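Input structure tokens:
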């Protein structure tokens, strides 16, 4: 098995297939996906558009149902894990309600889940600190920069303290400097909380900088073509991106992407 260092498997996919039936015929979004994600792993999914990255993340979150294979999340079916609120999900766009303050946005899922007012206040304060937005709870989304809004959406996903965080290209729309800053902040948050993270990205440096494992995918059908266990230490300053070790992993990812790319 792929279990390493004694860490428990949290997400296990075996032969996962997902075929969408469309008016133009079947689309094989995922084909024979085998993957084990262990407790505390930071796993990035990288690959060209249409290789099934988002579909796989959505399948883990039970937002899509596989048409074949088995998938287990925290020892349950993905659907049971969703009902047990096993994960927080961060979408590509922050998706904050403009008529609610930042604290009000973070509060919303907690209200739906029935947390008491005092418990909500305590959780909101804690997650705002975690994403470095202490003091911004009373602001409205439009009063914050894009990077701050995305941090607020991460805080919302963290507020009910699930062990798993699923993030679908959360920093894709941000400029490089902001992205660098958020990458560092995310690593810090991951180190502090010990969460298991699944992260979709198009960026090779981002995948290599953040991950303990990099999953390279290829389209038509969407499948895994390489899984790279990173030899980099967990504590990573941005300068690590200039080291030969970093560049060697980036090279392997690039080669994997090139091999699976159809250029059409
Ligand atoms: N609900 C759906 N119905 C039909 N086809 C779908 C649906 N969702 C995704 N697909 C198709 O499945 C394939 C995989 O899509 P997916 O969004 O997972 O790719 P991706 O790797 O995340 O791409 P991107 O990087 O562009 O976000 C694509 O061909 C897409 O068109």
């Amino acid at each position: 098995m792929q279990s390493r260092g004694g860490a428990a498997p949290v997400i296990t996919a075996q032969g996962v297939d997902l075929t969408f039936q469309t008016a133009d015929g079947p689309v094989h979004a995922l084909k024979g996906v085998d993957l084990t994600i262990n407790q505390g792993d930071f796993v990035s999914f990288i690959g060209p558009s249409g290789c099934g990255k988002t579909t796989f993340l959505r399948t883990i979150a039970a937002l899509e149902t596989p048409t074949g294979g088995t998938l287990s999340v925290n020892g349950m079916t993905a659907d049971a894990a969703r009902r047990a609120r096993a994960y927080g999900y961060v979408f590509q766009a922050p998706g904050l309600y403009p008529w609610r303050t930042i604290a009000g946005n973070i509060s919303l899922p907690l209200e739906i889940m029935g947390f008491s007012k005092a418990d909500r206040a305590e959780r909101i304060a804690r997650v705002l600190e975690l994403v470095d937005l202490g003091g911004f709870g009373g602001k409205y989304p439009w009063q914050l920069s894009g990077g701050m809004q995305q941090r607020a959406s991460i805080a919302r996903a963290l507020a009910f303290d699930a062990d798993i965080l699923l993030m679908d290209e959360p920093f894709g729309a941000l400029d490089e400097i902001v992205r660098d800053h958020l990458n560092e902040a995310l690593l810090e948050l991951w180190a502090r909380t010990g969460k298991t993270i699944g992260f979709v990205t198009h960026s090779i440096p981002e995948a290599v900088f953040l991950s303990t494992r990099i999953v390279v995918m290829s389209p038509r059908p969407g499948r895994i073509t390489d899984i790279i266990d990173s030899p980099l230490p967990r504590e990573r300053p941005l300068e690590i991106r200039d080291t030969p070790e970093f560049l060697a992993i980036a090279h392997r990812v690039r080669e994997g992407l090139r091999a699976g790319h159809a250029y059409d």
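The longest helix spans residues 176-193. The mean pLDDT is 91.
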